[in-house]
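agent: user wants the structure for CAAX prenyl protease-like protein from Prolixibacter denitrificans. delegating to structure tool.
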Amino acid sequence: MRGFISFYRKRILRITEFLVIFLIVPILLFTKVIDVSFFPILLLGAIIFLIQLIRDPSFRLKRLWNWGKARKSIGRIFLYFVPVALLMTLVVYFWEPDHLFYLPRNHPWLWLGLLVSYPLFSVIPQNIAFRAFFVHRYRKLFQSNSTIILASAAMFAFGHIIFHNWLAVILTFIGGILFTKRYIETKSLVASVIEHSLYGVWLFTCGLGMFFTEQVV
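agent: tool returned. relaying tokens verbatim.
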């Protein structure tokens, strides 16, 4: 009986933790109850999650790197990326032609800085939170790969409600499926970081970045 109670107590605590981190915090940011920028919270959360993973003996630290598997996946990553990048560019060209390549055309130094800062300060923390930590921490709640991929993608998309537009949510749900699937298949956080960085940098390059700033309301 004690074991039964302990099991369900741990499960309830884990579910509560999940709801607070991935549902309540984004809602508080969206409604401005917590009126601060999203990025300091993301960085702080990623540091806490990384420490938790490092201290967890059941987590294989190799998953944070595993360059061998990441290297083998690069060809497949580009096989997906090239046609999608072309599609993204065409969407901007026909939908918002004035925004096509807006950042490199009008703010080249800002764009070059973004090429470095975005992967380091946004992509890596997001992948620690929504790939490495999420998949390991909540694996037992969702059990199968397909359900945890969908759950991770859904929470990744929900976190983007802070940008106050549906396009950011829809695109990040699709991206979340792709990035989490890549992480699970390769067992390499580096692989998902590379893939996420490609799409994210191109999104800001081609002109869709306007939907991923906290000024969009």
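agent: one observation worth passing along. The chain has a mean pLDDT of 95.
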